[in-house]
Q: What sequence folds into this?
């Protein structure tokens, strides 16, 4: 059994991580920290874990809180993991940060978007971007994994086969994505009240969303050249799920994209390319680590529309973190990640 | 008082039309027909109208059912109004069709998309497309008004200032739009059950939606040349509302689009351009005849993103039909259309 | 035109009050106060009022803020109106408190349930409980009206005909009621996030809810003797609406309750007794000032089940306050309250 | 591995059964029938099972369709399982009916409520009512199990400790329960459209619901004498979940009910009694086989309020059927039933 420590597990990525790890056959959660909840039982905060989890939150500053652990997973807001990383790595622990501290390789760019000074810029270059479909081997060996953001996971998995093969005009990449409200986290925030967010849709951060540079970095890397990427996120009245609708102009409209995507993802356990003409529902991936993708070619145009869906808290956060953990520990990549979405 | 007859008022556009007309200070609903509900009271079908509407559904084939009427409004499914139109116009009545029978000027194209033979192709050329912001004067004089579709209303109002001024590259127009479930009508249909449509998002008809040719026709007309238009509709878990996110590449990125849009819509009672940087929520237009629009310019690109929101049943259907009725009757255009959206 | 001042209109009862008063044909809103929003426009806080309301929030401590007003309506949290009441009444203004400060006649009981000292206990006896179906004449003459709570409105209107006629055993009255989330107000509160409150139902405050003593007081008064009342409120995933399911054991099971209820409410403009066997939906009263009621007699028992539905923000708060305002000003009781619920 | 056949798995109880059995470590689904879907793959009907289930629907009339099976589970509408039962039992198969055909021991009463003639009244007496918390040993040996209804599961588990100990006055039992829309099944039915059922609550079948006699039978049996039971079900805008609020007058108000309930359910793997003062949310049991219960004593009364929550499709249908299957096969009762509810 691998011993895992969790930093800051009181938010939605924390509760999702616990839901997955509590039943993981090869993992023991050895410690979980929270400054605010120290001394309280995990099950009192998350009643869905009553009877399934005996953990008590520890003080993150406590003596030897992760002394027994092999791997630490950070489920904190942005800007916390980087304050722990140097010490943890120095003690020989490995770290998966579910937040954004190590996702952007250009530290100045990161500081600009996240509005803070990076606490350990020297570790950024070492961090492996934890998208297994792109970086599987590097992840397996990594000391420090930067787990991708939710939108970046859906958008990059949708675009990868296209940009890896130079099939998208670099200035034509756009994404219109919608997310459930859990993407905003568990903070008490008026616009996320049911009374405000239900029965309504709105775009947000059209002037600039932090996931834009993360996606642009990933697509540029995959394309081998800089790409331009326009991103419009929206919030819709549901709890979990991201549906990303991707647009690009094709450099070669004659390529069989359906075959290309199926070949690219044939051996991926968590990417499911629908048959031609399909429309994935977010509910079919809810609570699972799957990304479901469909490819459409609007008639009479040189454009492609790709539909990519994930659960923002699972493949978009904690599920992917467990997938990375499995890779890092040499487990089967699907271990503990075999849930089937509730239907209905 | 103008006397209005309603054909087929048992669906959602019918109930919305009744909600508006029952309180309209210058209109009397003289008759409402339904084959299935003939003889039953309107209030028994729509309990929200109990105490507010004494009408009984009439048989559409009944003798002189609309004999007293000045204007007939058709709230039926597609393909019904065209079977009534010649007879009604011949009797000197004016007709507003809320469905699609007279929206597409190319009859062959209409027949291809709607899968039926047109019943009165000779009337199509006469029909005025009922988008007041584009055709106000023609509507006022029309005998036959083709009320626009819901997506076409949101998309065209969002794009008009751009394409009227040649500011969008003609092959760059795209829209990603989401709609509440009421857009699918009141038919018993498994995918629209709450158990299926709640807590999920999916795109649909990406291979071809009937509103695509309607929008392409309208934008081409406004542009004075053919435009290419890619359209991706989605259904989201709410009852009412459309949020259309529009994309185009600008021919002249230096134009002040905020000023352009404000000027274009300054005198429009039902189009509200938000201050720069805004994000309209669909809930702020729910139950109203408003279209709220915001303009964004993604940094470092030559693209524009326009956000356009309406209530699909009001400005996107029955409210706009009442606006057209007001124009046709010489009333103040806002008569009976002054509701304020519920908040929350 | 009557000039109305509003204290503290930044919450949901405030926005609902503005929605109603802005269109009221005989009312002008002369001033609205908010400590936090002083100097900001009302429409910037409530985008649904853009173009319909030019008011700017005033400082509640400002000089002569309600100098011009005839009536002041308080839409603040509990405990605020009582700090303004003595001064306002002394200046000859009349006051309608939408919160709970003047609802409970037993000041000690009030202080116990609301956890604070009453600021003007001497005014409590003068305050008229603003349930027009019970107190119409007293309201018309009142200086100070205590607008009923949301649950108390639904429950009392459902029970009144029964208890007024001694038909319910006094120890048998129970109510199981569900409310939408807007009942919890606009405070940022984690359990009311869409991510928490959607797709779930829970009871709350079963150990004691503040509306229990208010209802018990009202039913005891109507019965002319003390009654025992068990109350279980629940929160369900919707924005607006209360559905109260009421139970009592009948003292005389032979009475025709349907006829009794219809007679009791025949002349009430805002109480609609459904035909026998009916089941009111909360959506048919959403955004309206209506209370819809149905009466059921479980077979083979001496019990009655009454279903009573309102919109918690309209008949359950601000709509009823406007109804009271109309009575106090000698207007038609339905003035400004003629909306029809959106369907769907 | 036990081989299970499923009759009629195209509805929500069928999809839930598949979700559970596909991952069950000791079960193989050998066949699944559907007249309408014969020849089609299960995954094409239920996309959430893509990649997890290779079954194809068989014709229920097909030769030897369940020849290989040990147990057959029927997930059909009411009235179907009884037409298969005699033949299946004669062939030595065991049968679990998730519908209502064998729940009511009084065949005449069943025929009255279900509006049809019973096809095999001679088997009704043999059928074991599949509530493990009441009938564990009989279930283990049964040939024919009548799986309880959803409301009956929540209501009976909530009342059992009380009525088994004679603590409730027999004429005082009442339940007000709310259900998500999945309880209405997958039939295309206008009132269950999201456009109709969202943002609304209503009671239904107050004049008589089929679960009333099932519950009255169970409570009378547990009490050892006839009890009177008043039942009011409601539908609320969510997919899954039942929250039952139970009321009774106590014969002995001095009993420590919290201790009584904790003792009664101490060894039950799927009944969780919350600490005193708790309020269970339906979301904490969603997708699980748990029933969470809390006990409240309204102050100053001799009444008790019990809150009981389940997932209507899991503990209220297919999960409980799997629990019964485990008992019948001698497996650990929790096998395949260890999911943790998604949060949020």
A:
């Amino acid at each position: 059994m691998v011993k895992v420590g969790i930093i800051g597990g009181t938010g939605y990525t924390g509760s999702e991580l616990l839901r997955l790890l509590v039943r993981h056959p090869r993992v023991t959660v050895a410690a979980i920290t929270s400054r605010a909840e120290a001394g309280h039982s995990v099950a009192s905060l998350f009643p869905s874990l009553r009877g399934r989890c005996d953990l008590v939150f520890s003080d993150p500053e406590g003596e030897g809180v992760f002394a027994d652990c092999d791997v630490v997973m950070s489920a904190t807001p942005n800007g916390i993991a980087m304050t722990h990383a140097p010490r943890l790595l120095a003690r020989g622990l490995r770290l998966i940060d579910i937040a954004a501290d190590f996702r952007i390789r250009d530290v100045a760019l990161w500081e600009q978007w996240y509005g803070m000074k990076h606490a350990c810029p020297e570790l950024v270059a070492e961090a492996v971007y934890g998208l297994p479909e792109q970086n599987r081997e590097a992840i397996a060996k990594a000391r420090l994994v930067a787990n991708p953001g939710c939108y970046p996971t859906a958008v990059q998995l949708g675009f990868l086969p296209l940009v890896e093969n130079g099939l998208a005009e670099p200035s034509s990449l756009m994404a219109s994505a919608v997310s459930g409200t859990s993407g905003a986290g568990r903070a008490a925030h008026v616009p996320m009240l049911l009374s405000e967010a239900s029965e309504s849709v709105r775009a947000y951060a059209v002037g600039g969303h932090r996931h834009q540079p993360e996606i642009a970095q990933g697509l540029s890397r995959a394309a081998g050249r800089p790409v331009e990427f326009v991103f419009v996120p929206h919030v819709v009245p549901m709890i979990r799920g991201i549906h990303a609708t991707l647009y690009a102009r094709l450099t070669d409209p004659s390529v069989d994209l359906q075959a290309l995507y199926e070949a690219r993802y044939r051996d991926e356990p968590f990417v499911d390319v629908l048959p031609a003409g399909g429309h994935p529902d977010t509910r079919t991936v809810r609570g699972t680590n799957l990304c479901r993708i469909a490819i459409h070619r609007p008639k009479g145009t040189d454009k492609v529309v790709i539909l990519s869906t994930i659960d923002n808290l699972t493949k978009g956060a904690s599920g992917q973190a467990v997938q990375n953990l499995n890779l890092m520990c040499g487990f089967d990549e699907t271990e503990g990640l075999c849930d089937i979405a509730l239907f209905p």
